[in-house]
Amino acid sequence: MSATRGLMTIDVVGAGPAYTDRVGAAGACYLVRMDGTSIVLDLGQGAFPRLASMIEPSTIDAVFVSHLHPDHFVDLVSLRHYLRWQFRPSRRVRVVGPAGLEGRLDALHDEPGFAAAALDVATLAEGSWTFGPLTVTAAKVTHTADSYAFRVASDRRAGLVYSGDCGRADDLARLIRTGDTLLSEVSFGPGPVPADVAHLDGPAIGALADGTGVGAVLLTHLQMGFDERATIESVRGRYGGPVNLVGPGDRYAI
Ligand SMILES: [Zn+2]
Ligand SMILES: [Zn+2]
After folding, report:
1. Strand, helix or coil at 152?
2. Ligand nearest to the CA of 167
3. Considering only 72-76, 141-145, 152-156, 236-240, which range has the smallest mean pLDDT?
4. From the CA of 90, how far away is ligand 1's center (Å)?
5. Is 32 in contact with 9 (CB distance < 8 Å)?
6. Most exposed of 41, 74, 95, 236 (fewest Cβ within 10 Å)?
């Protein structure tokens, strides 16, 4: 694409959830770009083809994986095959994910070294990574024992905070700066979230957005069977800013 300098864009490659009857849906995957730097947040089932239609995958600076549920990482297998076999010599992409990710990928193929043949997998922990103008900051959230949310931003600018899968809205508050765009999972739509389930609903996101002063809310990862309009309204009931439910192919600028 012909990007405007200094503009951060977010392409929704896949918006989840783990399963759906919606044709064209894909697992979680978001492409964040600024001035030639490209960061991918999660790479869930079926997301690779659309990602490859948007960017030459070997040029991605890093793929960040929020947690080790397959709807957030399983298309790393496709990325690995692409890098390994589409080029002579093979190309490589950096992947930052929770401890154990490389072993999960190797186990899928029953092949030690499978991931390492084309992916440079680093272990994710709380902290920051900088690529060109973009800094990615990771913070732990309540979901699996080793789940993370991310903030992607450039200096002195509003950024994007992506929840990953998250069972406690307040976990996201320490990542959010006033004016940021909040891209949040809303697995249980207008709610409520069943007890002992670590996901979010619209009222919790609305309260978080209002309390932290975000500039906009983007909703994603809505489970099959929940009403889209009621989901959006359940956020608007507590937050006065713009609220959208995102889908594959959507692009937003920050
Ligand atoms: Zn999950
Ligand atoms: Zn998920």
Report:
1. strand
2. 1
3. 152-156
4. 31
5. yes
6. 236
Compute, in angstroms, the gap from residue 88 CA to the centroid of ligand 2: 34
Question: CB under 8 Å to 191, separation ≥6 — which residues?
Answer: 201, 202, 203, 204, 234
What is the whole-number distance in angstroms between the Cα of residue 5 and the centre of ligand 2?
32
Q: Omega of the bond prior to 248 within 30 degrees of 0, cis?
A: no
Provide the residue type at 211 as one letter. G
SS3 category, 138: strand
- Average pLDDT over every residue of 120-125: 98
User: 72 C-alpha vs ligand 1 centroid, how far in Å?
Assistant: 7
- Confidence (pTM): 0.97
Distance 222 CA to ligand 2 centre (A): 10
Burial of residue 114 (number of CB atoms within 10 Å: 0-12, 13-18, 19+): buried
Considering the chain, what is the average pLDDT of its residues? Answer: 97
> Of the bound ligands, which one is closest to the alpha carbon of residue 223?
2
**For the CA of 44, the nearest ligand:** 2
How much is the pLDDT for 155? 87
Q: How far apart are CA 136 and CA 44, in angstroms?
A: 19
How many whole angstroms from 67 Cα to the centroid of ligand 1? 7
pLDDT above 90 for 157: no
